[in-house]
C-alpha cells in the first residue's frame, strides 16, 4: 500500500503528505477526492483508512487502476460487477420445504392483489423491526436444485452455515430470463389438460399469459403411479369449476414455441386446488 500521497486541489500547488498528516475532520473538509498516487505518470486516486490505536494508511480508491509501470500496480480480481466469483452450491430441497412452498403458493393464489400487497407491507415492517448479528457469507451462493448434481459434502457444510435456499414463487405471467434453469413455484388457473402414456401437459393461465407445465419421462420414471391419473383433473374441474394449479419445476424455453415452460419431475411437486394428484384422484374415484 502507498506510504504517501499527492494532494492536489486543482491549483498549481501539489504537495506530498502521509496518512498521519490527516485526521478525519480535515480529510472530510479538505483531502477527500484530492489524493493521488505519488508514482510518475500514475493518476490513481487514493483514500485514507483511519485505524484506532494503529497507524492510518492509504489504499487505492475502489475501481481506480494504477499505471502498469507503477510500483503499486495490481491486476484487479473479477468481482460481482464483472465475473461472478461467488461459489455456487446446489442444495436439494427437503420434502417439508416443498410442501410448505406449495401451501403458501395456494394461499397466495386465493388472495386478491390488494390482500397480497397488504401482507407484504406487514412482512416488510416486521423485517425492519428485526435485527440480527449474523453476517452473510458473500463468497457462497446457495441455489435450490430439483435434479442437478449435488456435492453432498459441500451441501452438508452449506446447510450448517445457512438456511435452506429460497424457492421463489412466480405467477404464470411473471417468469423472466433470470428464472431460466432454476426451480420456481409457478401458479395459475388450469385451462387445459392433455395426457398420454408417460407424458402429460397442463396449461395454466394468469392474466393474459398462458404457461405450459410438462410432465415427461423423468417424471413418470420417478412417479409411475401418476400415469393415467391426469384425466381426473378435467373431471374434477367439470364438477367444481376453475382450478388453481401450483407446481415446483424447472423453468426453460420451449424448443418448439420459444416461450417459457416448466418441467416437473416428482409427483409430490404440484397440487391442484391444494391437493396432490393422488388425493384428487381418490376423490374422483368415489363418484362412481
Describe the structure in your own words:
The longest helix has 16 residues, at 113-128. Helix 6 (231-240) packs across helix 7. It is built from seven helices and 14 strands. The chain is elongated, with a radius of gyration of 29 Å. The protein has 288 residues and is an alpha+beta fold. The protein has two domains: 4-60, no CATH class; 77-117 and 141-288, Nucleic acid-binding proteins (OB fold (Dihydrolipoamide Acetyltransferase, E2P)), CATH 2.40.50.140. Strands 9-10-11-13-12 form a five-stranded mixed barrel. The chain has helices at residues 24-31, 95-109, 113-128, 152-161, 217-222, 231-240, 277-285; strands spanning 4-8, 14-18, 35-36, 46-49, 57-60, 87-92, 140-145, 169-171, 183-196, 199-206, 209-215, 244-253, 260-264, 270-272.
What keyword list fits this structure?
288 residues, alpha+beta, OB fold (Dihydrolipoamide Acetyltransferase, E2P), five-stranded mixed β-barrel, three-stranded antiparallel β-sheet, 7 helices, elongated
Instruction: Identify the strand order in the major beta sheet.
Output: 9-10-11-13-12
Taking pLDDT < 50 over at least 5 consecutive residues as the criterion, the unreliable ranges are 77-85, 131-138
Instruction: Give the tally of structural domains.
Output: 2
- The SSE order reads EEHEEEEHHEHEEEEHHEEEH
Work out the radius of gyration: 29 Å
CATH architecture of the largest domain: Beta Barrel
CATH fold annotation of the largest domain? OB fold (Dihydrolipoamide Acetyltransferase, E2P)
Helix/strand-derived category reads alpha+beta
Number of helices: 7
Percent strand equals 25-35%
Helix % is: 25-40%
Q: Please describe the biggest sheet, giving its number of strands, its sense, and whether it closes into a barrel.
A: 5 strands, mixed, barrel
What's the CATH H-level superfamily name of the largest domain? Nucleic acid-binding proteins
| Average pLDDT | 81
Assigned CATH class of the largest domain: Mainly Beta
Amino acid at each position: 500500500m502507498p506510504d504517501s500521497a499527492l494532494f492536489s486541489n486543482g491549483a498549481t500547488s501539489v504537495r506530498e503528505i502521509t496518512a498521519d498528516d490527516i485526521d478525519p475532520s480535515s480529510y472530510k473538509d479538505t483531502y477527500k477526492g484530492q489524493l493521488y498516487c505519488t508514482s510518475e505518470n500514475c493518476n490513481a486516486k487514493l483514500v485514507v483508512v483511519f485505524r484506532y490505536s494503529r497507524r492510518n494508511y492509504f489504499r487505492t480508491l475502489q475501481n481506480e487502476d494504477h499505471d502498469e509501470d507503477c510500483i503499486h500496480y495490481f491486476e484487479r480480481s473479477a468481482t460481482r460487477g464483472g465475473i461472478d466469483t461467488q461459489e455456487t452450491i446446489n442444495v436439494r430441497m427437503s420434502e417439508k420445504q416443498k410442501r410448505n412452498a406449495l401451501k403458501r403458493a395456494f394461499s397466495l393464489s386465493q388472495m386478491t392483489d390488494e390482500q397480497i400487497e397488504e401482507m407484504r407491507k406487514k412482512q416488510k415492517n416486521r423485517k425492519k423491526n428485526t435485527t440480527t448479528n449474523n453476517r452473510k457469507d458473500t463468497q457462497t451462493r446457495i441455489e435450490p436444485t430439483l435434479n442437478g448434481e449435488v456435492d453432498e459434502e459441500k451441501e452438508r457444510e452449506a446447510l450448517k452455515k445457512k438456511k435452506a435456499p429460497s424457492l421463489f414463487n412466480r405467477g404464470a405471467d411473471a417468469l423472466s430470463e433470470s428464472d431460466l434453469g432454476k426451480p420456481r413455484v409457478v401458479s395459475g388457473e388450469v385451462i387445459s389438460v392433455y395426457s398420454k402414456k408417460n407424458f402429460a401437459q397442463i396449461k395454466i393461465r394468469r392474466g393474459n399469459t398462458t404457461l405450459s407445465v410438462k410432465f415427461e419421462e423423468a417424471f413418470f420414471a420417478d412417479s409411475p403411479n401418476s400415469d393415467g391419473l391426469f384425466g381426473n383433473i378435467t373431471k374434477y374441474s367439470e364438477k367444481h369449476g376453475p382450478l388453481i394449479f401450483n407446481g415446483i419445476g424447472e423453468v426453460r424455453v420451449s424448443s418448439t414455441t420459444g416461450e417459457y415452460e416448466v418441467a416437473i419431475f416428482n409427483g409430490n411437486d404440484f397440487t391442484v386446488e391444494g391437493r396432490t394428484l393422488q388425493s384428487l384422484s381418490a376423490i374422483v374415484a368415489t363418484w362412481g
